[in-house]
Structures are given as structure tokens and as C-alpha cells.
Specification:
Number of strands: 10
Number of helices: 6
Structural class: alpha/beta
Shape: globular
CATH architecture of the largest domain: 2-Layer Sandwich
CATH superfamily of the largest domain: Metalloproteases ("zincins"), catalytic domain
CATH class of the largest domain: Alpha Beta
Bound molecules: zinc ion
Strand order of the largest sheet: 4-5-7-6
Oligomer: single chain
Strand content: 15-25%
CATH topology of the largest domain: Zincin-like
Distance between the termini: 33 Å
Length: 223
Amino acid sequence: MEEIPVEKIIRSRRRTIGLEVTPAATLIVRAPLRAPAQYIEEIIRQKSSWILRKIDEMKRCPLSPCHEYSEGELFFFLGRAYPLQIVKEGSITIERSDKLYVSRTLLPDIRNHLKRWYREEAHKEIQARCMWFSMKTGHIPASVCITDARQRWGSCTHKGALNFSWRLIQTPPEIVDYVVVHELVHISQPDHSKKFWDKVRKIMPDYERRRKWLRENERLLKI
Ligand SMILES: [Zn+2]
């Protein structure tokens, strides 16, 4: 049997085993507090064909650098995949619920409409996360802007103004938080010295795992 990459097992007060294949094509297992490892392995084995199919989909589809904007194509938002669904009429233009619904009237210029939508949504989410971590850590940005950058997820000017690429909003919330914390720490520590990483670790002890995820998913920046 093909090896299934389990990224982590999250235990909580739940009754059943939950399986989720991430955009990075790894598996996250949610399990009851006392479920024995053997039992979890058995469930993974039973569901292996479904898991491998999902992993294959994730590897092929979501990270491809260009979208075709065909129905069913996956779009990522905060780490979740939303199939594109074109709708005939009604009042909606772009709406995210179980799918990413886009009105047919936007089709001629769908790429730009979606990009604008991503930018607006990114602004709301990232601004909110910045405020939260700013309050928590005392690092206060001069401003928070959303850019179209493809080279990096975020940046910090010498005046303490933070920039984030709208593309960051495709990644899971914990990854957004890492980039936010990284840039907030840059306000007082502009380099990547040991002192910088010590400050990041103090706020976010597991930052290295998140940083690794970003490195492995850099293709999302190219979209
Ligand atoms: Zn940096």
C-alpha cells in the first residue's frame, strides 16, 4: 500500500474519527481523546483508497499556477477548497458558502472579479488577525495593506507599515497567523537574526511547522 502522509493527529472530546486531506496533500486526523493508535491506523487503512484519491486530487488540482475557471475547479480560502459554481441569475455576484458561487454575468472577466473579491476578503481577514495579534503582543503596525505580490507573503517597511499578498488568504488560518506574527515582529526587529526568531517563538512556539508549510506550498503565491 502507498504510504499516507499523516501531518498530525488532533485529539479532542469527539466521538468519531475525522479525516481531512489538506491543500498540502497530507492528512489531518481528528480523533477522540482515548482512541488507541491501532484503531486510528485501522480507520486510515479502511479509508485508504478515498484518502489516496483525495491526495492525488490535491496534488494535481489546487496548486496549479493558472486557473481555467471551469465549473468544479477548486479555489482555496483559509485552507479550504471550494469548487467553483457558476450561477445563472439572482442577486449574488460572488459568494462563498459550501461552494464558491459566481454569477454568470461576471464570466467575461471572471479572473479580475475573483481577484478583486479575494483582495477584499483578504483585507477583512488579515486586518482582523493583525489587530488581534497587535493587541496581544504590543507590536503596533503603522498601517496594513493588501498587495498583489507574488514574491513574498508579507513585508514590513522601515516605518512599520505591513503589506500582505492577497494570495495568503488561500492558506489555512494558522498559516495566516504565522505570517502576521512574523511581520509584526519585524516592526521592532527588521532582520532575521536569532533575536528575531526568539521573539517569534515566544509568541508562537510552533512557528517552524507553519513556516515549513509555507515553503512547501509556495506555488500558491504564483497563482
Ligand atoms: Zn521576515
